[in-house]
Design goal:
This protein has 314 residues and is an alpha/beta fold. The protein contains nine helices and 17 strands. The protein has two domains: 261 residues, Carbamate kinase, CATH 3.40.1160; 36 residues, no CATH class. An eight-stranded mixed beta sheet has the order 3-9-2-1-12-16-17-15, sandwiched between helices. A four-stranded mixed beta sheet has the order 8-4-10-11. The protein starts with a strand and ends with a strand. The structure holds adenosine-5'-diphosphate (ADP) and magnesium ion (MG). The site of adenosine-5'-diphosphate has 15 residues, from strand 13. Magnesium ion binds next to loops.
Length: 314
């Protein structure tokens, strides 16, 4: 009986494939394929907690919000919550259906709308970098900038609002997630890294306009739960050095100190592999046994050490 607790961070390709428009059918079909992989891990005896990206989904919700004046537009934190509910539903639905199809025990499946605390004085708030929402013309952008927002011209395609990407510190719903996972529920949570909130001096929380990296948020979740394994599933088979060059080489295993050294040499691109390696290093440095980066289509092989990159202590 393995019964290791594995926190799995699912990449964008688990829900939406490049080139797709994002119809409900497309997303449900991708999620169904993803859930087959997850249920195979359950069959092997692993316990899993799932987290996922939400970039395209929250982007579409923001566009829908901006597209009409008939109903009031919602702020970013509420759009983030909507995206968690939408993806959570697709995952719950597909996971349950896959358990039924395989004739497996119908254990509880639940998604938790999750908030993640960020620090109000995170330097990221001084320098917003993440583009969100639709493109607008310059006049509109200038008007919003006069109201204090940050907008950038995006490679000739128009103007886009940018928001900060602060470091996640703490998962607010951790205890609820822990209890569900302990009782053998399959939990989907911390979507998009969690809805960013800051703690006020009186201890209350306030939603902020920001986006959290889903891999860094996933690490806080995995470490907070005391997971045995933190596994990031994406669209490449493993972590490479010299990625995209003729000398490219995939790594099957590295220690945290090796990973840190390669990180300093610039092998992992910011915004894609960079935060994944950072999240894995943090997980192992905080006492985790192993972190894994691998392909969504090789989840079981990666867990067993036959595929992907393992990041281990020392
Ligand atoms: P996800 O949506 O799963 O988080 P990302 O697009 O953010 O995926 O990150 C995965 C991408 O990282 C890969 O498709 C690859 O193009 C890129 N990448 C950058 N550096 C590396 C590297 N050193 N090794 C492997 N992939 C890398
Ligand atoms: Mg991606």
């Amino acid at each position: 009986m393995a019964k290791e607790l594995v926190v799995i961070a699912l990449g964008g390709n688990a829900i939406l494939q490049p080139g797709q428009r994002g119809t409900a059918e497309e997303q449900l079909e991708n999620v169904r394929t993803t859930c087959r992989q997850i249920v195979t891990l359950l069959e092997e005896g692993y316990r899993v907690v799932l987290t996922h990206g939400n970039g395209p989904q929250v982007g579409n919700i923001i566009i829908q919000n901006q597209a009409t004046d008939a109903v009031p537009a919602m702020p970013m934190d509420i759009c983030g919550a909507e995206s968690q509910g939408m993806i959570g539903y697709m995952m719950q639905h597909s996971l349950r259906n896959e358990l039924v199809r395989r004739g497996m025990e119908l254990r509880p499946v639940a998604s938790i709308v999750t908030q993640t605390v960020v620090s109000a004085d995170d330097p990221a708030f001084l320098r917003p970098t993440k583009p969100v929402g639709p493109f607008y013309d310059e006049a509109y952008a200038r008007k919003r900038m006069a109201e204090g927002e940050t907008w950038v011209e995006d490679a000739g395609r128009g103007w886009r609002k940018v928001v900060p990407s602060p470091d996640p510190k703490e998962i607010v719903e951790l205890e609820a997630i822990r209890r569900l996972a302990r009782d053998h529920a399959i939990v989907v949570c911390t979507g998009g890294g969690g809805i960013p909130v800051v703690r006020e001096p009186d201890g209350t929380l306030r939603g902020v306009e920001a986006v959290i990296d889903k891999d860094l948020g996933g690490q806080r979740l995995a470490t907070g739960l005391g997971a045995d394994v933190f596994m990031i599933l994406t669209d490449v088979p493993a972590v490479a050095v010299d990625y995209g060059r003729p000398t490219q080489r995939f790594l099957s295993r590295m220690t945290v100190s090796e990973a840190r050294a390669l990180q300093k040499e610039g092998h992992f691109k910011p915004g894609s592999m960079g935060p994944k390696v950072e999240a894995c290093c943090r997980f192992v440095e905080a006492g985790g046994k192993r972190a894994i980066i691998g392909s969504l289509v090789q989840a079981l092989d990666a867990l067993a050490g036959r595929a992907g990159t393992w990041i281990v202590p020392c």
